[in-house]
């Protein structure tokens, strides 16, 4: 295993170096600019697109965008199998040029803590001044904003963000939708949803920005590839904060995610690290808002559906008829590309936890035949092989459901398994309820489905 030290540079005159006194450390230098003087890794296209929206974020917001790029970049290019003593926890040191080193260094501990919570790794940050030639990087837009927007909303191409978009637009809000993609499947679904929203509500009803940001393979010495992408939300939120900071006033950044997924209580002890993401967990969102306040950015994250199940989100959607029409064009599956092994185009597998929650939610919020999405496996009346992934997920879900039915008080303990809930205030009972109600939706979906070794 290796401890990775990554030095980010802004030009060839940046001579900053590190020489760790550790035989298990490896150093990589990553230039944030290409030989033409343009920002690498898709950042330049994003900055130009924000300028086209007549937005002018601050240099601090740009620091955050670069930091988000760096975090996700190294996360996806350092293999856990090669670089973690326990097969999971990596040690990552980032050396980063910023516009205000003192401000950022004061947040180094907070950044390390929130990323440890998100990815399970140990992160260390050292900030230094940008080169003199890079003190001002954010371009000032020469366009006048004739249609100022009143909020930012994350749009992933999934069902929850689609509901969030419909609710905002139906309510007369004028959002900027922010998306991030690093693969063709995600990009395709985002475009489908955005095109459908334009056709329904009109091109002038919202703006959108889609960032294709990421590191190429083999950019880090002895890194490898890592497919878990636990830090994706750090980049996603950084991108949204960059856009929000360029807007007028204190812009709200909406994070549409159902409460069951936000809590993401592990179905068993094996899922606590490797299979439980914390993208929208209340603790993580609260730390983000603390960070944004500490560095002086105007945006704030809010999940308006934090205490609703996905089924309740569907039921309460402000345009249910339109949602039902758009639903099969959204993507919720955790890994749709695996359908290629069955010689299918990317589609919902039908058995991963996001797929089970989606199917349960449509059963609750619509009706038995309200979801026309194509799924890879049938569930109703089936006995699935628990030795395979489809059966293992169902078995884990049914085991948790049985535990809850036998002891309803278990819910009060379970919701703390994926992280602290010290920031929810007097809403704790609502979080207990969203977990119970969400699992009840899955129980209804799986009442005629069983799993055993076959």
TrEMBL record:
SUPFAM superfamilies the UniProt entry points to: Adenine nucleotide alpha hydrolases-like (SSF52402)
Classification via InterPro entries: QatC (IPR049676), Rossmann-like_a/b/a_fold (IPR014729)
Gene3D superfamilies for this protein: HUPs
NCBIfam families per UniProt: QatC
Protein name, per record: ATPase
Species of provenance: Thalassobacterium sedimentorum
